[in-house]
Specification:
44% helix; 9 helices; 18% strand; alpha/beta; 7-stranded mixed β-sheet; Rossmann fold
Length: 217
């Protein structure tokens, strides 16, 4: 397990600019190309802000925040505090610089660390875990900790296996980049939500996987 986690960390620590380019609006041509080629990513982005509701005055936790695009968008939409956590140091550094450039460093705090072992101050209204569970072999302890936070809204994405897409990702990430990838079924995600104590949840079928909308309302 430790070796697999190190593989994920090593991979993401090398690619903040490459990863951020998938969402970046600054280069309009590249953004248009990515939006066409990577429709699953943009569907995930749309679903997140469609289902998270009004963020005005909310505290948001972004688990596996990457380059901070979702965190920063939450701050733009009125969240009073957004905490992003990622175990890749270069991703956290990139997120901090992005927030500073956009004048949102007072609302965004980025932490380099392990979500499962980090002790957070206070509670959160919204918890995001987008593109995070792709790299998690045993999600149950993470779900349990998220459930204990009792967020009003929990939004997470999960890859599902298809022969063409799943095999291609396995070769590209696990064999070539030494970064493990895991897949989920709707029943598995439902079970995780129930065990975590979510009082309501819905599993949506998205273009490349599953999208969970849950909470403790």
């Amino acid at each position: 397990m430790k070796l697999e986690a190190e593989g994920v960390k090593t991979y993401f620590d090398k690619v903040p600019k490459e990863w951020d380019a998938l969402y970046s609006h600054e280069n309009k041509l590249r953004y248009a190309v990515n939006k066409w080629l990577r429709k699953g990513l943009f569907e995930r982005y749309r679903l997140t802000f469609e289902y998270c509701g009004d963020l005005t005055g909310n505290k948001v936790l972004d688990i596996g925040c990457g380059t901070g695009r979702f965190s920063i968008e939450c701050a733009k939409r009125g969240a009073k505090l957004v905490v992003g956590i990622d175990f890749a140091p270069s991703m956290v550094g990139f997120s901090q610089r992005m927030a500073e450039q956009m004048g949102l460093s007072d609302k965004c705090k980025f932490i380099q660390g392990d979500f499962l072992t980090h002790e957070f101050d206070g509670t959160f209204d919204v918890v995001l875990a987008l593109g995070f569970f792709d790299y998690i072999k045993n999600p149950a302890p993470l779900f349990k900790k998220i459930g204990q936070m009792s967020p009003r809204r929990f939004l997470a994405s999960f890859p599902k296996f298809t022969y063409i897409w799943g095999i291609q990702r396995h070769i590209r990430y696990y064999w070539i980049k030494k970064c493990p990838i895991y897949h989920y079924t709707a029943e598995q995600v439902k079970s995780l939500c129930k065990d975590a104590g979510f009082t309501n949840f819905e599993i949506l079928q998205s273009r490349r996987g599953l999208f969970c909308v849950g909470g403790c309302d």
